[in-house]
Task: inverse folding
């Protein structure tokens, strides 16, 4: 949620010395009525929803007293704003307006600096104003270190025809706005309308502040719980995904739901991309073959197999998808078999009940294809995997054929292994726990785990059983890279004594709430 | 010739003692890159796989016979200081590989680089690779892959997507079209050397006969390339693919750069601007190699 709600944005502006209307946040009609009462009756009731033109959708309402405020709140809370529910309402005093202006800070990719954009006309969108009244608009590139000198702000307002006391007051607000943007490391900070009240105060009636996801960690005071720009308040599954990502800096996992309500047969697929450019091409290809995507997902930047596994489990927690489609750029620099193992573990545990087509082109692709297709034969649904010489359109075509021809297997219980084991040998990994059941390992001839362990931290002890050849602390601190080889290869080649437990907090509860096991 | 890196480029690796820095320095060297020094504050005097480590960049400069480029492998919150150090020392090119570098840090880096008259690439870049000559960053991953994927020739590749940089290069080479240099400009919105700057370098590189662009929605880089073609600043043929046609307005698909805000940076706008300026824009990525081959003939 790298965007501040109007309420939070106004709090930040007010802390910086820019006046805002008195207001209270409400989550129920009763609270809204009480808030209206204490604000003196005549108020404006505003949905805290991330949609444009709230007024036109009935999401902003003007009322004269407490009881209608409650009714307005009830109506707004029952509305679906852009496909997502409204949960919060801002109840604000009404102010008498003398003039309406606009001010915003945006970051300019051309000049590589912040730019202050102002307009003598406020209210509607700035692009519209710039088109229809170019003379009312002016901009000033800012020095990222030195900020905005007061005199430059006065001159800027003069250029668009604002004079006298109002010019002086607006200029002061501009210096404060720039300081807010700098302090928050905002990607944009707009006040629209920025008004002069009838009693001569400069006041922000509405604001839109977006933050830099990459800098949110430096601003714990803002209480951002999901540092992602999603276009809507985060869904429960997006929160679960963000919890997986937030403290794990090994690669990037990005997850965004595109729709929540759909069912089998509607040609909606779970989408698992690797890298933004390749992902976008993958989604385009799916669209050309008549599919839509339930979600956007990107695991890239050399993520460990554990992150790919968790991502896949989250994707498979979207009931109603008709298929699973994965693709990267086609020629990835990273070793592709890590992703293959992550997918295999998730597919087997689920177990996957729809066709999957995954394009894992790049370094190590032969091994990746062998693992993904070879180890998933028991599933009873087709899992196909391709490398760099198969275009993404061919992969989308294959998914179309498979979805059209396959009959889904009867629902099966998840094959997760959480039963206690007979003779556990256990150690912690950075985000989970590895267990070898030495009772099973005794019967195992291949000892596949030791050879498969990518960082080679396993050995056979004197009794011929797999153990660490580094300390427990070293394994937990990252020598175990969570490559998942000791589980996935053990399932295929060993006796099945290896298991890596990788919890996804909140996922089981979420699945239960959606009627999934 | 090639651009930005060649066989004689002397390279410093900042953060060479870290897991990523060490591994990448080794791969760069295996591809033939001249890695002459490393820098990690507090670790001066050590050596990493035979490369001497210095406490500061200036110290590394004084101890060597010169440094042409620095590649930074440090965690995102530390990138700003490392980059400002390299820029202050006057290193002509700094490559910021790190992902998730805060954008206000990048703007400060850009300001310092402009004042010092030096360049930087990135952040969030896989770097640059000149075929058979050297690599800064991590394009290609393993050196043997980079050698088998990319063959020398006359096409320069500039891309906004990391993964698609290698892919574009690979599919071109597979179609028999060789390359001079591949550049990933970085996936973020505000970056050091954007597509237009890279195209300008290709324009003045004698070996490069044609430029292949992988563009994306959002920002103004592709439009600026079109402007340069219109003004006659760029005369070599440009063949482009623009990704993200199906992307929803206002939705960010992990690339910080790939976002359509308001009317700016739309897929249709970029395609039209490039076509009007005389570039070939292919609708399907798979059609790129044939279009580039044709441009080379023409
Ligand atoms: S492959 Fe599996 S069963 Fe065999 S020794 Fe390793 S963990 Fe035990
Ligand atoms: S113990 Fe080895 S094989 Fe198993 S997950 Fe860790 S690194 Fe991979």
Result:
């Amino acid at each position: 949620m790298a965007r501040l709600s109007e309420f939070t944005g106004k709090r930040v502006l007010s802390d910086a010395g820019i006046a805002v209307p008195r207001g209270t946040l409400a989550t129920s009609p009763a609270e809204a009525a009480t808030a209206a009462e204490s604000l003196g009756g005549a108020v404006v009731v505003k949905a805290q929803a991330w949609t444009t033109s709230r007024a036109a959708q009935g999401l902003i309402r003007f009322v004269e007293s407490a009881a209608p405020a409650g009714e307005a709140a009830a109506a707004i809370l029952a509305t679906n704003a852009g496909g997502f529910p409204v949960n919060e309402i801002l109840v604000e005093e009404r102010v008498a307006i003398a003039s309406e202006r606009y001010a915003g800070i945006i970051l300019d990719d051309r000049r590589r600096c912040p730019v202050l954009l102002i307009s003598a006309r406020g209210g509607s969108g700035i692009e519209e104003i710039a088109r229809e009244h170019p003379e009312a608009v002016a901009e000033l590139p800012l020095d990222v270190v030195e900020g905005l000198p007061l005199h430059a702000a006065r001159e800027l307002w003069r250029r668009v025809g604002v004079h006298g006391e109002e010019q002086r007051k607006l200029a002061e607000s501009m210096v404060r706005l720039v300081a807010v943007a700098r302090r928050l490391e905002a990607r944009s900070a707009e006040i629209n309308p920025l008004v002069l009240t009838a009693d001569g105060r400069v006041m922000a009636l509405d604001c839109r502040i977006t933050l830099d996801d990459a800098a949110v960690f430096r601003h714990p005071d803002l209480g951002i719980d999901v540092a992602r720009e999603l276009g809507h308040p985060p869904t429960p599954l997006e929160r679960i995904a963000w919890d997986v990502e937030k403290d794990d800096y090994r690669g990037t996992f990005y997850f965004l739901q595109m729709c929540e309500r759909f069912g089998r047969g509607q040609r909606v697929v779970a989408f698992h991309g690797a890298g933004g450019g390749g992902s976008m091409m993958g989604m385009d290809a799916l669209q050309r073959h008549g599919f839509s995507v339930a979600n956007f997902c990107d695991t890239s930047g050399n993520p460990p197999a554990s992150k790919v596994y968790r991502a896949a489990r989250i994707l498979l927690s979207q009931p109603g998808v008709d298929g699973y489609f994965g693709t990267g750029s086609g020629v990835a620099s990273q070793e592709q078999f890590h992703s293959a193992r992550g997918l295999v573990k998730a597919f087997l545990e689920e177990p996957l009940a729809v066709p999957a087509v995954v394009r894992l082109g790049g370094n190590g692709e032969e091994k990746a294809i062998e693992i993904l297709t070879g180890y998933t034969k028991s599933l009873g649904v087709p899992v196909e995997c391709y490398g760099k010489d198969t275009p993404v359109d061919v992969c989308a075509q294959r998914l179309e054929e498979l979805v059209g021809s396959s009959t889904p297997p009867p629902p099966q219980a998840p094959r997760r292994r959480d039963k206690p084991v007979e003779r556990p040998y256990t150690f912690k990994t950075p985000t989970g726990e590895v267990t070898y059941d030495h009772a099973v390992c005794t019967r195992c001839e291949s000892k596949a785990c030791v050879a498969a362990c990518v960082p080679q931290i396993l050995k056979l002890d004197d009794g011929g059983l797999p153990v660490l050849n580094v300390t427990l602390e070293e394994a937990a601190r990252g020598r175990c890279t969570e490559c998942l080889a000791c589980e996935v290869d053990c399932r295929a080649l060993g006796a099945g004594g290896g298991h890596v437990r990788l919890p996804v907090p909140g996922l089981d509860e979420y699945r239960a709430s959606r009627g999934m096991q | 010739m090639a651009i930005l890196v060649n066989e004689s480029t002397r390279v410093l690796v900042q953060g060479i003692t870290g897991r990523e820095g060490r591994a990448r320095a080794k791969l760069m060297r295996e591809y033939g890159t001249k890695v002459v020094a490393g820098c990690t504050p507090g670790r001066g005097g050590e050596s990493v796989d035979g490369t001497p480590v210095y406490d500061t960049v200036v110290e590394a400069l004084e101890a060597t016979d010169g440094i042409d480029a620095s590649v930074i492998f440090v965690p995102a919150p530390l990138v700003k200081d490392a980059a400002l150090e390299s820029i202050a020392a006057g290193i002509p090119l700094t490559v910021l590989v790190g992902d998730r570098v805060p954008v206000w840090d990048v703007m400060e880096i850009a300001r310092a680089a402009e004042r010092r008259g030096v360049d930087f690439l990135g952040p969030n870049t896989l770097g640059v690779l000149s075929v058979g000559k050297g690599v800064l960053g991590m394009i290609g991953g393993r050196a043997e892959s980079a050698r088998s994927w990319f063959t020398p020739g006359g096409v320069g590749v500039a891309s906004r997507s990391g993964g698609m940089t290698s892919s574009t290069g690979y599919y071109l080479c597979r179609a028999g079209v060789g390359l001079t240099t591949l550049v990933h400009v970085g996936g973020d919105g505000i970056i050091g050397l954007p597509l237009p700057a890279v195209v300008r370098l290709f324009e003045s590189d004698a070996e490069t006969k044609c430029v292949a662009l992988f563009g994306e929605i959002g920002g103004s880089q592709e439009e600026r390339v079109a402007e340069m073609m219109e003004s006659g600043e760029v005369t070599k043929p440009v063949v482009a693919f623009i990704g993200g046609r199906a992307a929803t307005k206002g939705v960010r698909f992990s690339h910080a750069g790939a976002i359509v805000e308001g009317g700016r940076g739309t897929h249709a706008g970029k395609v039209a601007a490039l076509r009007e300026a005389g570039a070939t824009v292919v609708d399907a990525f798979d059609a790129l190699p044939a279009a580039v081959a044709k441009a080379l003939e023409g």
